[in-house]
Design goal:
Elements (H helix, E strand, L loop, with lengths): L1 H10 L4 E6 L10 H5 L5 E8 L2 E2 L14 H12 L3 E7 L2 E3 L11 H4 L18 H6 L5 E2 L5 H17 L4 E5 L12 H11 L9 H42 L4 E6 L3 H8 L3 H7 L4 E5 L5 H11 L6 E6 L5 H12 L5 E5 L1 H6 L1 H7 L6
């Protein structure tokens, strides 16, 4: 009995209790809040994914032609004192299904917006089997392309101006891996800054003769930093866009859980986003069992763990393991937890009970 009381007291320390509600759960919108049983104070509601919207948009293909469900959902969530962030997939633009036939979708309207590999091959020329073999989810837009940036800024602007969201939540705000950095916009921006085409670095011997070994090493290091820094500049731009329209909105991102892997493998330098004040908080997608190591490493690298939410994967772990992980986060200085996803909580109430989170009143 004493242990149970201590456990509940630890859980009560969690300031942030979030849940991701994916687009395939929107059909359940009338029941979502009731099914969550008052256990959560923040919902990440997916309304933009794969280049399509789940609200009537003037900028992208629409899955739904009415937004009555959305305005009612937001009003009821706010009545229950639950915040809702608009969850959007940023660069992940299409999966392995047959391509969209809508002429407005970027895959049809702007094929030049998509990533190229280092050999200049467009990601759109890869088959689904080739992408799966590289552990990639699908087809990604090029973060450095000015057209892509304008498109994303307009999508974000539309969402925050039309609806009463409490925040914007960026997902897939990264590269699929470090091999797709061959788009001409990224190369041109590097060339304009350093007066070298980064592809010349592949001709190491001749370049070393021209600029010395030191110069070659310096340029190589600069090019390695350039894509993540370029992406970080877009994060800052998106942050300023949101705050200029609605200063009180929370800007967050779902990120790879280990900060070193995120930066080195996915060019996602979320540590610098936090330190620069270009994001309000991040959600670690820490869906595996080895949570302790991830939290220890990240805690040593960030200055304000109170701006880090730990994402737990109910789809991948037993309810007992989730309960242990919630307790581990409750004993840490991190802001709280968010659960992926609503579908798992709905299908098996043991997860809600395992969370041990008392209803918020």
């Amino acid at each position: 009995m004493k242990v149970a009381v201590i456990f509940c007291l630890l859980l009560a320390r969690l300031d942030f209790r979030g849940v991701w509600v994916p687009r395939w759960s929107i059909a359940d919108h009338e029941k979502i809040l009731a099914n969550l049983d008052g256990r959560f104070n923040h919902i990440f509601l997916q309304v933009f994914a794969l280049g399509e919207t789940w609200y009537p948009s003037e900028l992208a293909p629409n899955h739904l032609t009415s937004d009555e469900w959305l305005t009612e959902f937001l009003a009821e969530a706010h009545r229950r004192k639950i915040k809702v962030s608009a969850w959007i997939n940023v660069f992940y633009s299409w999966g392995f299904a047959p391509p969209s036939s809508d002429p407005r979708h970027p895959i049809n309207a702007h094929p030049d917006w998509y990533l190229l590999n280092r050999a200049g091959r467009s990601i759109l020329d890869y088959t689904a089997e080739e992408l799966r073999a590289r552990d990639m989810e699908g087809y990604y837009l090029a973060p450095a392309h000015p057209g892509v940036r304008d498109y994303l800024l307009r999508i974000v602007g539309e969402l925050i101006q039309k609806y009463d969201f409490d925040g914007i939540h960026f997902d897939y705000i990264r590269y699929p891996n470090g091999q797709f950095t061959g788009d001409p916009q990224l190369r041109t921006q590097f060339d304009r800054k350093y007066y070298f085409d980064p592809f010349d670095l592949a001709r190491a011997e001749s370049l070393q003769l021209r600029i010395s070994q030191w110069g070659y090493d310096d340029l190589t290091e600069k090019w390695q930093r350039f894509p993540p820094d370029n992406l970080s500049a877009l994060v800052a731009q998106l942050y300023r866009k949101v705050k200029s329209v609605k200063p009180g909105l929370l800007v967050s991102a779902a990120v790879k859980p280990d900060y070193r892997t995120a930066k080195d493998d996915y060019l996602q330098d979320w540590q610098s986003w936090l330190n620069a004040g270009d994001i309000d908080f991040v959600c670690l997608m820490a869906y595996g069992r080895d949570l302790r190591t991830i939290l220890k490493n990240d805690l040593a690298a960030i200055t304000d763990p109170g701006r880090v939410v730990v994402g737990l994967g109910a789809y991948a772990q037993s309810s007992g393991t989730i309960a242990e992980q919630v307790e581990e986060v409750a004993q840490s200085p991190f802001l709280g937890v968010t659960i992926f996803s609503y579908e798992d909580l709905k299908k098996d109430r043991q997860y809600l009970n395992a969370l041990g989170l008392p209803a918020l009143r």
